[in-house]
Write a structure and sequence with these properties.
mainly alpha; elongated; about 180 residues; single chain
Length: about 180
């Protein structure tokens, strides 16, 4: 689902009229791009939260099965996923004020959206790793290795998310820094 299309479809008559005004259109389009990315990050956080619920259920399953020696490892995976979800929810969405040193351009906003969309595509890896741990628990073998692999998958996704800052500043994957011309003196 492309949230930019959702935003476009939700525009009312007044918004469409305002967007036609000179000077206002570019400002409003930036806002719509930011809103689309915010919706995308919300979707990403929601999907990861569903996986977090699975992890919490698996931790209870470990306890119920008498496999308490693995609960600390599972707790570490849970904590990493909770931290990632929090970072996604609170991540900046490409806003820059009038006096900010870094001016975020439309191309950068599009790059941020594309970056976040790529993260969404990585979520099946998390679900698969959790599924593998679930199977390990049911089989009663390979639990430690499965949890370690899960922690690595979550850590890799978190590391990838950290690169988002580079996209915002214009030095990340698929973007190029746009410098503001020096102010006239």
């Amino acid at each position: 689902m492309d949230f930019r299309d959702v935003i476009e479809g939700a525009k009312g008559g007044l918004e469409k009229f305002a967007a036609s005004l000179p000077g206002f259109k570019g400002y409003k389009e930036k806002e719509w791009r930011r809103e689309a990315d915010k919706l995308l990050r919300g979707k990403l956080a929601d999907e990861l939260s569903a996986q977090l619920r699975r992890l919490n259920e698996l931790q209870l399953q470990l306890v119920d099965s008498g496999l308490i020696e693995f609960t600390d490892d599972m707790g570490r995976a849970i904590k990493k996923l909770e931290n990632l979800i929090d970072r996604i929810k609170t991540a900046t969405y490409g806003y820059s004020g009038f006096f900010d040193a870094i001016k975020v351009k439309e191309a950068q906003l599009d790059a941020i959206y594309a970056f976040d969309a790529k993260l969404l595509e990585q979520l099946p890896k998390v679900a698969e790793a959790i599924g593998a741990v679930e199977q390990d628990i049911e089989a009663g073998t390979g639990i430690s290795a499965g949890i370690k692999k899960l922690v690595k998958v979550i850590a890799d996704l978190a590391e990838q998310f950290e690169k988002r800052k580079e996209v915002i500043t214009g030095f990340g994957e698929g973007t190029q820094a746009e410098e503001e011309p020096p102010a006239a003196q």
